[in-house]
Amino acid sequence: MASEIARLRTEVGELERKVAWKRRRARFLVASLLVTLVSTPSLIAWNVAFADTHAALVAGRGFLGTALAVGGLTVAVICVDHLVQADPLDFRIHHQAPDRYKYSLAQLRDRLAIEREELRMKSLRVHPPLADRRGLYREDTAEVIAQLGRESRHYRRVHNSLQSLIIIGSTAMTTLAATGQQDWDWQTLSVVVLGFSVTLASAFTGYYKYRERSYFLRQTADAIEEELNAVTLGIGEYSQYGESQEDEALAKFTQRVEALRNEQRRREQQLDQPADQAAPAESPPAA
Fold it and tell me: pLDDT above 70 covers what percent of the chain?
């Protein structure tokens, strides 16, 4: 029964990955198709509306034409890839289509629901010992931590991308508004470029706090290195442990290193919080 449950767990995990891949691919295909369908009438309307304005006509054609080409090419690549891999007409002899191409998203979801229900029913009939349950919980906890980390990195990338767009857009709008009536020469252009670059760099530095992150990471690395040298040489906090007490020394070393890593994670969370919500944290020394 235990081997059967382990097999079902593996199958459920594989089906979950297949469903996630199928869902991402469907979303990408729909987005590309929408871009293609919207770009076509938009390009026609733009040509009609700005037929007498050459600069606007060329700019609009370039943007909409690029969007149309990229969207259409993406749709074509996805469709051709699906036809080649799924081979619905059996052109390729001895070709076994992968499940993620062979079955639709609805079929994979149905299979996943059936496998999950079977796993649940068989798990109800098994009552492993407490040590085994704790071991399973420990393994499941590692997967939960990995999943939370992936979700956190995903939303962090989205947030940082949008925040970067806001910073660049606001800086560019301010620069263009301030120089709208200028007579352009090389001196004016140099001032505009330098001013834009300095403002942009200042905004990114203030928001992402690169100096603070570098300082805290270096501080944590130095502290962990100090602990490693101490436990290796048997000095400092580890001078009281002899060769026969190596397990106790390693346990204390692990505890202190984990405490340093937790402190580093707490500092990173404080740096990511808004200024009005962040708790007071140690500031790096002035350069």
Answer: 83
149-169 as b/e: b if 16+ CB within 10 A: eeeeeeeeeeeeeeeeeebee
What backbone torsions phi and psi does residue 165 show, to the nearest 5 degrees? Answer: -60, -40
CA distance 9 to 176: 58
Distance of CA 148 to CAs 140, 151, 228, Å? 12, 5, 29
Phi, psi angles (nearest 5°) of residue 184: -80, 125
Tell me, yes or no, whether 141 lies in a domain.
no
Q: Is residue 153 part of a domain?
A: no
In a domain, 17, yes or no: yes
Which positions ≥6 away from 215 have C-beta within 8 Å? Answer: 284, 285
For the whole model, what pTM was predicted? 0.50
Q: What are the pLDDT digits (tens) for 192-213?
A: 777 778 888 888 888 888 888 8
Residues 6 and 119 in one domain: yes
Structure-block tokens of residue 205: 């530095």
Q: Is 260 helix (H, G, I), strand (E, B) or coil?
A: helix
Tell how far CA 180 is from the center of its chain.
39
Residue 235 structural domain = 209-287
**115-148 core/surface letters (b: 16 or more CB in 10 A; e: else):** beeebeeeeeeeeeeeeeeeeeeeeeeeeeeeee
pLDDT of residue 279: 55
User: What is the pLDDT confidence band of residue 190, given thresholds at 50, 70 and 90?
Assistant: confident
Q: Are residues 235 and 113 in the same domain?
A: no
